[in-house]
Amino acid sequence: METRSREPAREAERLLTQCYDDMRRVARRILAGDGMAAQIQPTDLAHDAAIRLILSNEELSIEDRGHLLALAARTMRRILIDEVRKAGAAKRRAPTVLTEWPGGSATTLVDLSDLDAALTALQVYSERHALIVEMRFTLGLTVEETAKQTGIPERTVKRHWQAARAWLHDYLKAGEHVSVA
Amino acid sequence: MSRSPEVEQRALALVEQLLDSPLDDQAEAALLAHEPKAVQDRVTALKAAMQDSEIVLPTQFPGGLITSDLSPPPEQVGAFRLVRRIGMGGMGGVWLAERNDGLYDQKVAVKFIRPGLVNLAGAAFRAERQILARLEHPSIARLIDGGITPDHTPYLVMEYVDGVPIDEAAEPLALKERVRIFVMAADAVQFAHSRLVVHADLKPSNIFVDRQGRVKLLDFGIARLIEDDADTTGLVLPMTRDFASPQRLAGHTPTTGDDLFALGCILAELTRTADPDLKAIAENARAPEEADRYGSVAALIADLDRWSDQLPVAARPATLRYRADKFIARHRMGVIATCVALAMLGGLAGIATRNALMADRANQEAQARFVDARGAAKLVSDELLAQLASRPGTFAVRSRTVQAAQFYLDRLAASPKAPADLRLEAAQGLQRVAEAQGKPGVPNLGLTQAAYDNLGKALRLVDGLVGEQARLLTIRILLDRARLNSFARNDVQAALADLARADKLLEPAKGSPDFLRAQYFIELSVAQQWNSDYAEAIRSARTALSYIPRDAIRDHVIAHSTALDLYAEAIYYSISEKQSLPPYRDALAVLLAYEKTHPGDQIMNRRIARAQWALGSSIAGFGDPREAVAVLTESSRRTKEILAADPDDEDARRMVRISENARGQALAQAGEVDTGIAIIRANIAERKTHLDRRPDDPMRMRDYMVAIKGLGDLQIQYGRRAEACATYEQARQLIAVIRARGKLTALDLMSASKQVEEVRAKQCTAAMATI
């Protein structure tokens, strides 16, 4: 039983790896623009195929599914950051990638690398909080969907989300790690 | 700041506990009293951040469950007073409203969009809305305005149409009349398609017929408008299952083919009839596979016109044609062999058969159209595109030209049993179109995927053709695709595979032109660089150089310079920066020599500017700063000239800013600090102008602010403390303005702000004291 229950996760991880090229293409396309900086939606990186792949795999256990979704989100963000770095190395000018934090009428932008650094830091302190942020923010899932995909009760998802975004906001506000292009 | 995991975890837990059951200050103090000081501090910080983060990271997300219904709308939006609700759509409520600003009488439909379904502030949404507002056609209800209500509900104001849905309007009409009003609707769709707008949600309830019998299409492009913004957030999109194509249901981005499918469904519904021709037309339009449908809405209309004139329709024999096509696809080699054999057996029989076929009037028309298409495709792809690309300010024209060429070429490529010369011609056309769409390194439309698809199509067309021409064309297509794979798709393995195929075809020693070999080695060097095989890349670049004829033919000159540049880049990264200087210099010299004898070439001008920038910025790194200044000055002058010729050229604009910045820095380095600073100031002024043209664009605001801050940094570096403080003060004020406008409460703004404040605190109080 033990081996059987791990198989789907490994299989999904393998399939996710196969999406890498595609993710790179998405990242390339984002960087192909002419601007000195690129502005993206957080969900621009939510690779459809990869996510559908995970969501549709009914053999996955709840924990695996949450883990894989977060992994997918993180991988896609890193790929883009990696591409930015490479573009910079190759042509000695890296565009800045800003992502949009969803807001009302105001557009709020954050440097993608800063966001990644903040999420990585949060993950060190609480894997669970980081997981919720990936689900809600990067993948654009609702509270209910997040609860369903992770098995964490809705109420807890809400609380974690509120605390996590305060934490991130505080972290970014502190700003010592933040880069200005 | 160092953080301990225990403290962070505890603080997070406490904050959540307080969120869950808020306590009064006293109880909260009591709760925290037992905690270590570090934890208490973190809880305080997080609670403070919570206030801000409500704005920065709202709880409600696009498509969240929370926003399933609308709060009652305000009585007035913009210049319009709401009269009554006239509908409830998938996106939100629709209201009839009247203009009441006293300017003139106007009835409009106001459509509220569920909050969160779209970010109205998004640049993509705004751009798309402008396109829609310009979509003027008598049968398309106009998009008049849009905005956001005080309670943050986005809305769109549209022309109000007083009428009934087309299916209702059609009921009392005779069949011919029904087809007539349907064609009016299809005409409007075709019009929009020609402007690259798709409806994406066509259905009878979106096609109104008013009392005068005029047809009006509602919600044109609206579904797409919203979807662009929202399709990755897992929303249920505004689309109607009954009329949605299989591709659309599968979640693909809406295309003209989906509109065609919906029209087919609507036609079938309006003409529930035994008329076999009409049935065939509807079925053709809504074939499950997009490739089996009409090529465009225009073709559907043409067929309906033929039906009205009682001519044979194209839709019926089509099934046969498609079968033949599929047969060819399955047995390509065999069919071609057969065709070749037949052709050799005697042209006479062929001509006779053809005449017999052409006796049919419909076929005659088809033949005429075919000849037209062939001529048009050739003209467009061979001449027009090449001419346009070398001229400034032609982005929009090129874009439309490519559209037209694509349309004709697809028709050519789809012709059943196409003879070899036609296939060759179509493949060549597709290759040219692909270049215009997305060939890296030349002015292109940025349509990478379309370019890639066309190269694939072209390869399939030439596949199996024999003869020298076909071989050389295949090589060219493969080289183009390799470049696309290297640059735009980052698929180096695929690029190397394409190159290996090209290499095999180049093999026969007899007749491969040297220049084609050179091009092959250039692409090989590119792929190897991307693969970080610098030694190989250097070798390939040198091999390429050995094949390039040294004459004044433009393509040869460009290839020569490109190979030198590749060589320089590979050396720069793998051997030594300094050794890369001579080939960088040569790459520039070759271009300049050409320009002397052929002045006024825009593409050359741009290449020279780029080569100068590459050389100048390399020299600035480790050479004589004076020389760097000279080269970069020249680069700036050229890019400014290019930009002046075409102010829409964003690539040139970026080049100006980059080269000006590099020039300013180099000047300061060379001791001309004042001049350098003056140039950076001018650069800042340019960004300001750029911002003023679109004052709400947060990217431009940021660009501007970052440049000012950069100037301050430079002034500090060269000891201009007083100036730096003035600059920082300017940056500080700008940050305050941006923040107050609420357009850019950017988190990275905070860090810029923080840095500015820090430097001011450290440097500027002292500076003030000395004044």
Tell me about this structure.
The complex is a heterodimer of chains A (181) and B (771). Chain A has helices spanning 2-18, 20-31, 48-56, 62-91, 112-125, 127-138, 143-150, 154-174, and strands at 37-40, 96-101, 108-111. Chain A is mostly helical. In chain A, helix 1 (2-18) runs parallel beside helix 4 (62-91), helix 2 (20-31) packs across helix 4 (62-91) and helix 4 crosses helix 7 (143-150). Chain B is 66% helix and 6% strand. The longest helix of chain B is centred in the middle third of the chain and has 29 residues, at 361-389. In chain B, helix 10 runs antiparallel to helix 11. Chain B starts with a helix and ends with a helix. The interface between A and B is large, with 68 and 71 residues.
> What are the segments of chain A in which pLDDT stays under 50 over at least 5 consecutive residues?
102-107, 176-181
Q: Determine the mean pLDDT of chain A.
A: 70
Main sheet of chain A, how many strands, which sense, barrel? 3 strands, mixed
What is the rounded Rg of chain A? 17 Å
Per DSSP E runs of 2 or more residues, the count of β-strands of chain B stands at 9
Helix content of chain B: 55-70%
| Broad shape of chain A | globular
Describe the structure in brief.
With 181 residues, chain A is mainly alpha-helical. Chain A is built from 8 helices and 3 strands. Chain A is globular.
Which helices and strands occur, and which strands form pairs?
The complex is a heterodimer of chains A (181) and B (771).
Chain A: H1 2-18, H2 20-31, E1 37-40, H3 48-56, H4 62-91, E2 96-101, E3 108-111, H5 112-125, H6 127-138, H7 143-150, H8 154-174
Parallel strand pairs in A: 1-2
Antiparallel strand pairs in A: 2-3
Chain B: H1 5-20, H2 25-33, H3 37-56, E1 76-77, E2 80-88, E3 93-99, E4 107-112, H4 123-133, E5 143-148, E6 154-159, E7 163-165, H5 166-170, H6 175-194, E8 207-210, E9 215-217, H7 222-230, H8 246-249, H9 256-270, H10 276-285, H11 297-308, H12 315-330, H13 332-345, H14 347-358, H15 361-389, H16 395-414, H17 420-438, H18 448-462, H19 468-487, H20 492-506, H21 514-530, H22 534-547, H23 554-574, H24 581-597, H25 602-622, H26 625-645, H27 650-669, H28 673-693, H29 698-717, H30 721-741, H31 747-770
Antiparallel strand pairs in B: 1-2, 2-3, 3-4, 4-6, 5-6, 7-8, 8-9
